[in-house]
Amino acid sequence: MAKVEKKAAKRKSESPPPKNRVASVGKAFAVLQSFSSEAFELTLSEIAATADLDRGTAFRLIQTLVELGYLQPVPQSRRFRLGIACLDLGYTVLSHGSLRPMVEPLLRGLVPDVGDAASLGILDGGDVIYLARIGAGLDRHKMDRRPGTRIPAYSAALGHVMLAHLPRDEQIARLESRPRVKLSERTLTDLDALLARLDQVKKKGHAVSDGENAYGLRTLATPIFDAQGQVIGGLSVTVDAMRLDMVAFRDQALPRLMQVTAQVQDLAIKSGLTS
Asked: Which of 101, 156, 161, 201 is the most buried (most CB within 10 A)?
C-alpha cells in the first residue's frame, strides 16, 4: 500500500491540467498507469487511491476499460489486471518505427543453424526490452522472451553489451536502479564486479553469458551503434548448453553474429534510426 499511497500523492502534487486536455481521457490513463510490475493486480479501492479518483468514477472507468479489453477481472477475486488490448498497443509500438522489422529476417538466418534462439533488444533504464525473438528448441527451459518482455540488464549478456558502451556514471545509475539478485549461482550482482565485466565487454566488443541468466543456456551478444557511435540496441544468440560447450559455441557463433550485427547496423544508419 505504501507504493499506492506514494503514487496518489505524486498525482495530487501535479499542476492543474491545461485547458485543451480531455480530463476523462487523463483519468482513464491514470487507471491504467496504476498497475506496475510490483502491483499487477489491484482492487477498486487501490486503483481509486493510486489514480486519485473517487470510487464511483474509478468504478465507471474500470467497467469501460474492461469492456474495451484494456482491463480484465481476476477470476474469483475483486481484483483487476491489465488486459490483452494493452499488450496489442505495446506490440504495435515495438513493431513499427524501430529496428524490429528489418532485423527479424536476419535473426531467422541464425536459428537453428547457429543457435537455438536469436534476439534483438534495447535498454530501458535498468532493463533489457526484447523487440524481436526467433527461437526453436528451447521449450524445456520455459523461457518467455516475447517482444515486450523485460529482463534485468545486469544479469544478461544482451544487457552487458549495451551497458558497456555507456558512460560510467550512467552504467552505475542503471545498475543501481533495480535490486540485483542471483538468478543462478553464476549471476554477478556485486557492483564492482559488474563494472569490471563491462570494461572487459567493451574491450572485446561482445558479451558472453554461460548460465548466468538461466541454467543450461549459453549466450553471445553484440552491440548495435548509430551513425554517431551511440549504442542503440543489441543482438544475441543463445544455445542450449547440451548442444555445444562455451568455447565451441563462441568460435562458431561469434563470426556469424558479428556479420549479422554489421548488416543491422548498416540498415539502422541508412534508415536514420537513433533509438
From this structure: 161
What are the extents of the domains in the chain? 2-82, 93-271
Q: Taking every pair of C-alpha atoms in the chain, what is the biggest distance, in angstroms?
A: 63
The x, y and z cell numbers of residue 214, run together, are 538461466
Give the pLDDT of the chain (275 residues) as one tens digit per residue: 444 544 554 444 445 556 678 888 999 999 999 987 678 899 999 999 999 999 999 999 999 999 998 999 988 889 998 886 776 666 555 554 467 777 888 999 999 889 989 999 999 889 998 888 888 766 555 666 778 888 899 999 999 999 999 999 999 999 999 899 998 889 999 999 999 999 999 999 999 999 888 878 999 999 999 888 899 999 999 998 888 899 999 999 999 999 999 999 888 887 766 54
Q: Which 3 state secondary structure label does DSSP give 136?
A: coil
Closest CA to 90 of 82, 102, 80, 79: 82
The one-character DSSP state at 36 is -
List the beta bridge partners of residue 122. 129
Cα dihedral 61, 66, 71, 74, rounded to 10, equals 120
- Give me the CATH topology for the region 93-271: Beta-Lactamase (3.30.450)
Chain-centroid distance of CA 108 in Å reads 21
| CATH of the domain spanning 2-82 | 1.10.10.10
